[in-house]
Structures are given as C-alpha cells and as structure tokens.
Specification:
Radius of gyration: 15 Å
Order of helices and strands: HEEHEEEEH
Largest sheet: 4 strands, antiparallel
Mean pLDDT: 91
Strand order of the largest sheet: 2-1-3-4
Shape: globular
Number of helices: 3
Helix content: 10-25%
C-alpha cells in the first residue's frame, strides 16, 4: 500500500512545471508571476519548482544562487506551452515584466537569441 501511495504521489521528472499565475511569486524578485508570455521556471533535482516572472530573473537567480537544477523551462506564450532549455530561443526587445527585454520563443524563431546570449544580455543590464 505504501508503494502504491508513493507511486501515485511521484511526479514525472520530464514534465513541464506547474506555475499558478497571479498566485506564485517570482523566486528572484518577489513579484507575482502574472504574464504567461514571460514565465519561466527551474525544477531542482529534488523536484521543487521555482517560478520566475521574467527570464532575466531566472538568469539572475542562476548566477547568484547556483541551484542544483534538473531542468529549466520557459513558457511560449504564443503557443501556450512550455519549452525546455534546449528548445527555447529569445526574442529581444520585448516589454518584459522586469525589463530584461527577453520573450521566450521556439529556438527556430528567426533572430532568436540562444540561452547563453540571452543570459549575457539580461545580466549586463
């Protein structure tokens, strides 16, 4: 019975994170995560989801806190789906919640910045 309960409560380590818009606070800046077009999340190796209201907040947190990360996810607001770190690019010049100017988009989007280039851009502000 205990094994059955443990299996029922376990989460898929490859599943996208669950972020509760207008309820979850950004792990970095403390503002509510309200706009799905800019939401991002880290899932730690112990399965905890850390939500962010702007990709720049996630990049700042990664550098300042160095969490033990299982995966990074970015929400594609255009298609209403989560993109893994390997699937995401960033459109520069967007009016993002905390001013990073980065909007997640599929990596194949023309002119999209890589995760590394987007992180460098956000951290240089």
């Amino acid at each position: 019975m205990t094994l059955l309960f443990a299996l029922a409560c376990s989460t898929d380590p490859n599943a996208p994170p669950v972020v509760h818009y207008d309820l979850d606070a950004c792990t970095d800046c403390g503002m509510l995560v309200s706009d799905p077009a800019y939401a991002s999340a880290i899932v730690t190796k112990d399965g905890k989801t850390l939500a962010f209201d702007d990709p720049g907040c996630l990049f700042h947190y990664m550098v300042t806190k160095t969490p033990d990360v299982r995966g990074m996810w970015f929400h594609d607001g255009t298609a209403d789906r989560w993109l893994r770190e390997s699937e995401v690019g960033f459109v520069s010049g967007a009016n993002s919640p905390m001013g990073s100017g980065l909007k997640p988009a599929p990596v194949a989007t023309p002119g999209a910045l890589s995760v590394g280039a987007a992180s460098s851009q956000a951290l240089s502000k």
